[in-house]
Amino acid sequence: MNRSRNVISILIVTGALLTAGSFRSTAQTEILSLPFRSPDPAQRAFDSLVASRIPVLPPRQLYPDHLLPVSLDNSDYKWFPGILYQQQYFACQQFAGIAYTFAYEINRLRDADGKTLPHKYAPHYTWHFFNEGERYVGVNFLHSFHALMEQGQMSNMDFGNDTILLERGWINGYEKYYRAMQNRIRQVWAIPVNSAEGIQTVKQYLYDHLDGSPSGGVACFTASSPVAPPKLPPGTPEAGKSVQLSWLPNPVHGMTIVGYNDSIRYDLNEDGQYTNHIDINNDSVVDARDWEIGGFLLANSY
Predict the structure, then answer these.
(1) Tens-place pLDDT, residues 38-67
(2) 93-111 in b/e burial notation, b at 16+ Cβ within 10 A?
(3) Rg of the Cα atoms in the chain
(4) Is residue 6 within 8 Å of 148, Cβ to Cβ?
(5) Do the Cβ atoms of 28 and 129 come closer than 8 Å?
(6) pLDDT in tens, 97-138
(7) pTM here?
(8) Phi, psi at residue 247, to the nearest 5°?
(9) Smallest Cα–Cα separation from 82: which of 141, 28, 8?
């Protein structure tokens, strides 16, 4: 077995996402309201502790912004499974961390077609380890990543359709678990995006994996659930697509960053212009929180 082709690293994004907006594909299904049982405060504190111990990706030499493409969408690569639908199961973190991020990265390593069953990875497989057998119990993808380090991830070819097993159920057959052991991760890295430099680092990771590769990666993160976001205005790039302008305090929903677009824009302070150089929030500092131009492309699962 070639171990280097079976063990990968995963990138997560931490901190506040400071770009003016994050736009989503119109192919996604939007659900305006879902029941959600708020995480236990002790569990949220534990998740925060786990997240705080994830090593930050060491500094890299970054390209000047003008050397990066104006936009890119890594979901166009064959390694990505396409937009998936979690239905009425609180497995969003596993869709973001496993079905999107892990699947893309390991398929990229193996140059495998992510839309075929042997190379699609079942989010419910790792969700079942921690969800207490309950449909409305969400599990942070950090716990799933630990499972991937320890015992691997089963493909949909072996696991089957996620919704057949609902929120509980286990697969029979040692050979299936053995095959899952071949699909593991070695390390999880974090990139804080509470600065322009952090945002630029994520963009370059999306572009070339920060190592000069001809293709880049994807990254997952946790924020509030996007509910009924506005649309990008007419006459602007990607007009009519949904744009997430801000996040609520509760980090309960997992999503994946698959690309970016430096040209999308939204007039946040309604002054009739699109700017990145004006202090629009009146905090006497001009930083990424004042940007009205540019955003990341997100893959959601509902």
Answers:
(1) 456 666 666 666 667 788 888 888 888 888
(2) bbbbbbbbbbbbbbbbebe
(3) 19
(4) no
(5) no
(6) 999 999 999 999 999 999 999 999 999 999 988 888 888 888
(7) 0.87
(8) -125, 145
(9) 28
If one counts every other C-beta atom within 10 angstroms of the C-beta of residue 117, the result is 13
d(CA 165, CA 131): 13
Write out the two tokens for 157: 């070819």
| Domains of the chain and any CATH numbers | 3-299 (3.90.70)
The full 3-state SS of the chain, as one line of letters, equals CCHHHCEEEEEEEECCCCCCEEEECCCCCCCCCCCCCCCCHHHHHHHHHHHHCCCECCCCCCCCHHHCCCEEEHHHCCCCCCCCCCCCCCCHHHHHHHHHHHHHHHHHHHCCCCCCHHHCECHHHHHCCCCCCCCCCCCCHHHHHHHHHHCCCCEHHHHCCHHHHCCCCCCCCHHHHHHHCCCEEEEEEEEECCCHHHHHHHHHHHHHCCCCCCCCCCEEEEECCCCCCCECCCCCCCCCCEEECCCCCCCCEEEEEEEEEEEEECCCCCCCCCCCCCCCCCCCCCCHHHCCEEEEEEECCC
CB 287 within 8 A of CB 196: yes
**CA–CA dist 118, 235 (Å, integer):** 42
**Structure-token match 């309604």, residue found:** 270
Nearest CA among 7, 5, 83, 16 for reference residue 258: 83
Which candidate, 241, 257, 248, places its Cα nearest to that of 227? 248
